């Protein structure tokens, strides 16, 4: 990635990964990503903030040379994950006088993950500062804003928040700053749902620390930067709230058509009742799209046939991931078809138990759905409608 100036003596020198399509062998990245790294030059000292994925360390070194960096005083590591800290061992060899700056938990992880010697690391606490000479770095410890050791760095004089993964997006773009927020918002929402949603309470605590400072630029570790912080702060306020929408997420898998017939019928029944519904065929759908919908859905209904004695493995995998993401969904249910028996419903309900959601009576039938079975789906749709109306009423009472 080309070197870009963010403000006087502050540079973006990271790398753009245009071709990445799968992160952590799990998360789809249909529009690539970036590994953002920054240099802050003071009158006396120079600091590098974060590194890049090791596959791009040559690009990082070239960028350091382009801005005339022959020595580094500090290498600030906000997060020990390898896509941000993975080039650190090489940099420590290249710059033997550089001191790593990290919080205590990050120091421990750098030792375990990257074999970084403890004596190369200066441990900082929340609110500690380093004066580079006219440029002051303040460290904001933000545990569990992804990992337990995460930290943000605030450049006081320029009002720049190097926010680590917070406010990030997996998006490869030549634009340094956000200019088309409609496009970026979708990728930021996807990123929040996949990365930050399990840690909503920690994100809220971190956002409070951000609000206490005069932040004029937000520079996350992935994706473009914000020179209008309100764009991302406003949507984060919504995403971290307890508010859900009149929306049903309906992930499903069908083997011979019975479950698909039920999904189709329930979808229409919900639409007829004025409920937004989003079915996803799990054999074809992107997990990131499902995660984004989960962020808004008041209800999740998983639809699956029974395979041998339990849910279809694809449906069970979806339930496991939804449980791990811990969305704010209020209600769950199960529909589908079985041949001769099994424990599909109980297995799925148990898997989703981390959601703390109310279980609405499932509609789990034997064989192809009959008229009586479709009538049961109408009852399920009626029940979901009443539950959602109750939510909206309580929300209006709360806002009044």
Structural key phrases:
400 residues; alpha/beta; 2 domains; 12 helices; elongated; Flavoprotein-like_sf
What would your notes on this structure say?
It is a single chain. The N and C termini lie far apart (50 Å). The longest helix is centred in the C-terminal third of the chain and has 29 residues, at 371-399. The model has no long low-confidence stretch (mean pLDDT 95). The protein is α/β, with parallel strands linked by helices. It has two domains: 4-240, Metallo-beta-lactamase, Chain A (4-Layer Sandwich); 245-392, 3-Layer(aba) Sandwich (Rossmann fold). The protein has a seven-stranded mixed sheet. Strands 17, 18, 19, 22, 23 and 24 form a six-stranded parallel sheet that branches. The chain has a five-stranded mixed sheet with strand order 12-13-14-15-16, covered by helices on one side. Helix 5 crosses helix 7 (230-239) and helix 8 (258-272) crosses helix 12 (371-399). The protein has helices at residues 57-66, 82-85, 88-94, 104-114, 181-196, 200-211, 230-239, 258-272, 287-296, 313-325, 344-351, 371-399, and strands spanning 4-7, 10-12, 15-17, 22-23, 27-28, 33-35, 38-41, 46-49, 74-76, 99-102, 121-123, 129-131, 136-141, 151-155, 160-164, 217-220, 245-252, 276-281, 297-303, 306-307, 310-311, 331-338, 358-359, 363-366.
């Amino acid at each position: 990635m080309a070197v870009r100036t963010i403000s006087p003596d502050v540079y973006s020198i990271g790398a753009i990964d245009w071709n990445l399509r799968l992160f952590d062998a799990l998360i789809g990245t249909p529009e690539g990503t970036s590994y953002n790294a920054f240099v802050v030059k003071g009158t006396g000292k120079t600091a590098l903030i974060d590194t890049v994925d090791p596959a791009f360390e040559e690009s990082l070194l070239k960028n350091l040379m382009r801005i005339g960096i022959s020595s580094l005083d500090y290498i600030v590591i906000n997060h020990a994950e390898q896509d941000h800290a993975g080039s650190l061992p090489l940099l420590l060899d290249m710059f033997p006088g550089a001191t790593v700056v990290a919080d205590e938990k990050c120091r421990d992880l750098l030792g375990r993950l990257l074999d970084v010697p403890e004596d190369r690391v200066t441990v900082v606490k929340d609110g500690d500062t380093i004066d580079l000479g006219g440029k002051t770095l303040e460290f904001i410890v933000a545990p569990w804003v992804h990992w337990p050791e995460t930290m943000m760095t605030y450049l006081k004089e320029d009002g720049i928040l190097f926010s680590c993964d917070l406010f990030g997006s997996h998006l490869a773009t030549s634009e340094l700053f956000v200019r088309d927020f409609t496009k970026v918002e979708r990728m930021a929402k996807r990123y929040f749902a996949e990365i930050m949603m399990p840690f909503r309470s920690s994100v809220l605590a971190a956002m409070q620390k951000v609000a206490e400072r005069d932040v004029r630029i937000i520079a996350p570790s992935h994706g473009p930067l914000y020179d209008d912080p309100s764009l991302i702060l406003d949507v984060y306020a919504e995403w971290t709230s307890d508010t859900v929408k009149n929306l049903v997420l309906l992930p499903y898998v069908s083997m011979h058509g019975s479950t698909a017939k039920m999904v189709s019928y329930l979808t229409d029944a919900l639409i007829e009742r004025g409920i937004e519904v989003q079915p996803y065929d799990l054999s074809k759908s992107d997990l990131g799209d499902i995660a984004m919908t989960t962020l808004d859905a008041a209800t999740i209904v998983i639809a699956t046939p029974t395979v041998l004695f339990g849910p279809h493995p694809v449906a069970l995998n979806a339930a496991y991931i939804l449980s791990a993401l811990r969305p704010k969904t209020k209600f769950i249910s199960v529909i589908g078809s079985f041949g001769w028996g099994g424990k599909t419903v109980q297995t799925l309900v148990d898997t989703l138990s981390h959601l703390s959601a109310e279980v609405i009576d499932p509609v789990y039938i034997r064989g192809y759905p009959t008229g009586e079975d479709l009538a049961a789906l109408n009852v399920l749709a009626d029940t979901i409608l009443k539950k959602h109306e109750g939510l909206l009423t309580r929300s209006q009472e709360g806002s009044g």
